[in-house]
Write a structure and sequence with these properties.
Layout (H helix, E strand, L loop, with lengths): L24 H16 L4 E3 L9 E4 L11 E12 L2 E5 L9 E5 L2 E7 L5 E7 H14 L10 H16 L4
Antiparallel strand pairs: 1-2, 2-3, 3-6, 4-5, 6-7
The structure holds nickel (II) ion (NI).
Nickel (II) ion (NI) binds next to helix 2.
Length: 169
């Protein structure tokens, strides 16, 4: 099932998401729906709050369906190691049409569980590193705009307010 993506302004995006304690079919269905919703929205990462579900689950596929092995499920993820810095354009499905330069670690290791409850560690560079921290941030109610300048953030919020008024957000 494809869920609509929640946009910036919805309080669910700024809430601390709840840890997963039960690894059942319901969770596995959620993960499946999240991949479907992410692909439908042309994204490479999606966190459960972005479909209005405040739970600590995220999915990533930086190859966008090219490599089935690249599908990553992160349940209760934590960032356990970061290295280096890389500044690059970053976007978010909850802030459609916007992209800003954000400095992130170049290499990131996350520890999480998969949908079966097994502990996993994922290490990635560049785009995958960015996705790991971006999606984990979502579960802590944090969006990438908190890393850009206040001036740019205010400009963005002004544009969004305008879009809301026009019924386009
Ligand atoms: Ni995002």
């Amino acid at each position: 099932m494809v869920y609509p993506i929640v946009k910036f302004g919805d309080p669910v995006l700024e809430k601390l998401a709840v840890p997963i304690t039960v690894f059942d079919d319901e969770l596995r269905k959620l993960v499946e729906d999240m991949f479907e919703s992410m692909y439908a929205a042309h994204g490479v990462g999606l966190a459960a709050p972005q479909i209005g579900i405040s739970k600590r689950v995220a999915v990533i596929d930086v190859t966008f369906k090219e490599d089935p092995e690249a599908k990553i499920v992160l349940v209760n993820p934590e960032i356990i190691h970061t290295e280096g810095r890389l500044t690059s354009n970053e976007g978010c499905l909850s802030l459609p049409e916007f992209r800003e330069k954000v400095t992130r670690p170049r290499t990131v290791t996350a520890r999480a569980q998969n949908e079966e409850g097994k502990t996993i560690e994922v290490t990635g560079d560049d785009l995958l590193a960015r996705a790991l921290v971006h999606e984990t941030d979502h579960l802590n109610g944090k969006l990438y705009i908190s890393y850009i300048s206040a001036l740019k953030r205010d400009m963005m919020k002004r544009k969004i307010r305008k879009l809301v008024k026009q019924g386009e957000w």
